[in-house]
Design a protein that fits this description.
39% of the residues lie in helices and 12% in strands. The chain is an alpha/beta fold. The strands form 5 sheets. It has a 7-stranded parallel beta sheet, with helices on both faces.
Amino acid sequence: MTSKKDVYFVIGGSGFVGRHIVEQLLRRGDNVSVFDIVQRYHDVPFYSGDISDQEQVSTALRRSGATCIIHTASPPAGLSDPALYWKVNVDGTKAVIAAAVQNNVRKLVFTSSAGVVFNGASLTNVDERLSPPERPMDAYNESKQKAEEAVIAANGKDGLLTVALRPAGIFGPGDRQVMAGLYKVYEDGKTHYQIGDNNNLFDWTYVENVAHAHLLAADKLDHSPPAPLFSTLEKTPLEAPPLTEAELDILNHPLPPLDLTVGRRCIPTSQGRPLGPYVTLPSDSEKLLAAFEEKRTHPEGRPVVRTRFDPLSEPNLFRAKFNDPATSPLQVAGQVFYITNGEPCYFWDMPRLVWNHLDTMFPGHRQKRAYTVLSATVGLAVAFGAECWGWLIGKEPAMTKFKVTYSCVDRWHNIEKARRVLGYEPQVGLADGVQRMVEWWRTEYAAGSHKTAH
């Protein structure tokens, strides 16, 4: 573990996620510089360059004195330019890795995507054991998948330590995709349309939570593994050895519930309960009420019980160590982690929350009307026709098969590994995050940054 503070180099630091990472680093007093193609902020040293040019990246690294790279740069999803995705995400990431090795940079944190494992089918509580599909859904996720593979393969090579984070459905202040798309639907009066039955759960992640996870990963990237790596032993064990005390410390403490949005509920018991209508209060009434309120503030953790299907069970930990003897599934280096709010919600509930906030800005703009619900099958048929028409006229259709599929399947992820190994806990809940995003958008609107018909 290093004793001195890192010097941070945020690639893509002018972008959505990158900027929030820079702001969090500045708030805690860290030394940080930015590498990007456009300079939008002037509070940190800035280096302009082409990420796919190793020499440009290397020169900037050398001048900045960086010891830790946080690589967030990527074109936005949804572009019809596979070559651009490959140039930035694949060639660019490989150039970053080479430049890091060339300049003896110790750490590399890479922003991947939960979409790298999406194949069009439902993903329900999936964890990091799920392998990416051979044929990703689109060029964006294909390039992210290849970039992530390169990052993980580089771990331990020439002293470089790497980790990849997979956030899902990022939103928040500064977002130019999710919020812009939802406002366009609102402005066009199409908020009453729904594709699918809205029984599918979907993960959204507030951007400051994503940034927080990156800082945790950077801080813990050079921590020693909690048990000797199999590659350091004289013989590779053929049976699972007993877990070390350090491993048990990671695995066995109860995790608190993720309740930033839904709040916490306490079940009354004979030892702790709210006081109902009494003629004469019980003699221990103050004790009963105090015990109830204490549990509400400091919930007692349930015992950690695992089965062989659990990703962090002893058999699965042993399998991970056996398959990759040079890393530990309970250390940060060489691993991937899902990062979400831990609050999967029905897909259409989040957009409707945004639209309800917009109603306070533009009262009377939306007329009350019943939802027009299209089944997934009908939605796919409509999207197919729109794509054919768009191909004929040379214009990207608003409705595509990918978007229909995206909105009709389950996509939520298990973040226990991130919570236990990174120490990640969401800082901002879904409802609060949506409100913050809309308030930011309201400020932008007031400043004239958005063209509207109002």
